[in-house]
Amino acid sequence: MVSVTSGSFVGNRTWFSEVVGGKDVVLRNTSALECLELFVGYLNEGHIDVYAKEQGEYENINYCIVDSFDNLDIVNIWDIQCTSVNQTFNDMLRDFDNIDEQSLVEALSTYYFRNDDSFSGLEIAPENQHVFDLIKDWAIEYHSEG
User: Where does the pLDDT of residue 122 fall: very low under 50, low under 70, confident under 90, or very high at 90 and above?
Assistant: First the structure.
C-alpha cells in the first residue's frame, strides 16, 4: 500500500502529521530536515524516511529498522517524532554516499545563515568531521550562488 504524497497537503509538516504523526516511528534524514524546516522539500514528494522498530505498511516509507530509539536524539514537533538537528546531520554525514546530497547541503546552508553565518552549535561527531569539512564550503556558498 502506498501512502499519500505531500502534494495533497498545504505543507510537509501537515503531511507528516497525517501519515506518521502519533505513530511509533521517528523521521530521519531528508524527512527530518523538512520537519525541522531546514529543507523545503520537493514538489509532490512521495517518500518519507523513518526509524522504526518494525517494517510498516507503506511502500513509500523508507523504514530503517532499529531495536530501540534510546540511542537517538529525538524532538517532538506537532506530535511527530523527529531526529534532532545534530542527530540528523550526523546520520546523513555518516551515510553520505547513500543520502539526498541536495537536501543535506541546502539544510547546512540554511543552518549557517540562520545562525549568523556560523556552524556554531552543531556537534559533528569526529568520524563525520572529514565529510563535513568537504561540503561545508559548498553549503556556505549554496544560497549566495543564485
Answer: very high
Mean per-residue pLDDT over the chain, rounded: 92
1 within domain boundaries = no
Work out how many domains the chain is built from and give that number: 1
| Residue whose C-alpha is closest to residue 46's, from 91, 9, 74 | 9
Structural domain contains residue 50: yes
Residue 86 DSSP SS3: helix
Cα dihedral 60, 61, 63, 64 sign = positive
Task: Indicate if the alpha-carbon torsion angle 111, 127, 95, 26 is positive or negative.
Answer: negative
Q: Which domain holds residue 71?
A: 6-142
Looking at the whole model, is its pTM more than 0.85?
yes
* Bridge partners, 26 (sequence order): 51
In whole angstroms, give the CA distance from residue 97 to residue 116. Answer: 29
